[in-house]
Amino acid sequence: MALGNITQVSSRRSFMLMGCGALLGLLMAGYSLFTARGTSTLVVPPEDVALVNQQPISRLDYLQQLQTLYGVDLRHATATQRRTVLDDMIREELFVQRGKELDVASTDPDVRAAMVNSVEQEIAADATTAQPTETQLHAYYAAHRARYASEGIMSVRDYVFPLSESQGAAEAAEALRANIPTPALLARWHGVDSGKAADEEFYFAVKIHLGGALFEAASTLPDGAASVPIVGSDAIHVLYMFKNKKPVPFDFDAARDRVLNDLRNDAIGHLRTGDEAFLRKRANVLIADDVR
Amino acid sequence: MRITVLLSASGCLIAAVWLHQSQLEGRLLRTEPNSIPANAALMGFALQRGGALFEAHCATCHGLAGQGDPRRGVPTLSDADWLYGTGSVSDVEQVIKYGIRSHHPKAWNLAIMPAYATPRPSARDGKIPPLSPQNIRDLVEFLMREQGRSADGAAAARGAGLFAGAGGCYDCHAVDGKGDAAIGAPNLTDGITLYGDGGRESLFMSIAYGRQGLCPAWVGRISPAGIREAALFVHSLSHPNSLARPQAPAANSASAAAAAAAAAAAAAAAASG
Q: What ipTM was reported for this prediction?
């Protein structure tokens, strides 16, 4: 069939080409309609090893599973190993899909907890891909500088005196300011080491061991100082500070790692709050009158 | 008329290129990842694109040449020391896809270095006790000794006891201190330090205040093919003899493109040769 001179307009040729195009379109549509279910595809994408009701099973996960179960990669896996892993993954996917159909989340507390956790993690994962700039990190560090300091270290002794020895405790405190504590010196006023504070401890440990009130008194003492007598419910305490290394603020470089983590955690917190607010906003929540 | 022919030819060319790239992507994804470095054609294709992805998404932390940054605890990717896995393409791909402590459910997140100078060193494991400053200094001496550096013998001996006992360090770093790549616990005996200069102060800081680096999960943000391409690029950084390894991505895209083109040419030459 001659198409005539291609440089000249031909209505016959135009109609013929249009017809061919339409026919080709119909053939393609028909092929898609009769060879696929609905809008599903019959081709497994290269990044997957299977599609189970159109849900992909990742090739990388499959390879990882092979490695985990048999310690082999795809090249060295036997046909049985490959088949076993794939069957297991297909089975899992089928059961997950069935679980959705049965709405197991409405009844199984473990599934509910896992889903809540999973959604929270998904939100957090979004925040981790955003890399803060150095300016943002510096700004965050400047705004929360108090957080970034070393833990203080102290060597303190807690000497206790009987409640009846208030005068003796005061004299002992005075003596401790001038002398290094010795058992003999303490015995003069019936004082003993409570043993609650160890040789050298971080501030938090001293606070746990001595309690908040004694720790507060101790943290202000310089090296070689003794506190005034502190009357407790059980005894009179006199604290003697051997060494008090107060918290030292970290400079930005030393704190950078923690600043980055804190900034990310804050971002995650904001995202979660935002997501929850959005979910609540679009939800239709009805609350019974008696529990409002 | 000429324009029509030109447009048609251009369209055909674009379609052919697209089809070719799609086929290569398909092959790249279907091929067993650890065998790809031996395939010059696929490597050339992957490195060309993986380098650009690395520059866009990974270089911010790891540096353009994958040199890392010890100040920030960012590992170097150009040596043979791997914190997670063995450095195989599939291991690297797993990290890029799901991340490390990225909050993705499939991320590597089994191990977090406890902060022993806090009342509760590990949020996950309440049985790990805090340590005293002297305990930490003893552990530092132990690590110095294990790395063959000068150390206080008595303190190192006490540190060894803590390492294998109350400190619980052995649980992640193994009894011999050589770490466990299955959970990302570093080898403490090889002198390669992730954080700081490996001196006493930086070791003290790591033990006292803990560490927990993070690598984002790129699944859903980079295509599966892109993730594999980036993994192959990262793999090539530590395997300078692998086929068609290009230069590290340059600071500007023009030189990056030139490097990638050179890599592709080398790959093609290798394939044909």
A: 0.74
